[in-house]
Amino acid sequence: MPRLHALELLPDAAGEATIRDDWQALRDAGLPSMLDHRGGTNTPHVTVISVPAIDGALERVAADSIASLLPLSVSTAGIAVLGGALITLVRLVAPSDDLVGQVMPLRAATTGHPHPGWTPHVTLARRLPRDAVQRALDVLAPRTDALVLTTLRRWDPDTGTVRTLGSR
Fold this sequence. Notes:
Helices cover 27% and strands 36% of the residues. It is built from four helices and seven strands. Strands 1, 2, 3, 4, 5, 6 and 7 form a seven-stranded antiparallel β-sheet that branches. A hairpin with a 4-residue loop joins strand 6 (146-156) and strand 7 (161-167).
């Protein structure tokens, strides 16, 4: 599978701190955490699309449609357990109808999505052993916080860089 290019929404500083608290709680419990990801571009985010290629035209459409909604408050909506033998633990995000209305045409205009549909979330941990899921759930505080999404960025895995497409 090729490395996937992405468009991502980032929260403001308070939202980032909230998610990093979750990351730290998992690490403090000796569990996998996104804090284990050493990449310099690793930060809490909601992936809009993740596909083999993103061209300039798609970037402009995303900037015009999605970035125009920013800042956008979304609520966290619980924790989901994704995957098979190894688990990805995520905090779900409840997007506004306006955001869904802008994201779905972008997804429809692109191919190579690793998963159908869109399940907006912020990743808390990857490669979590199945037998550690309950322990992970026990250390994560229940949250119904609002995350204020303020930045749309583009991740380019070929160059290892991110570029801001819109911010408010």
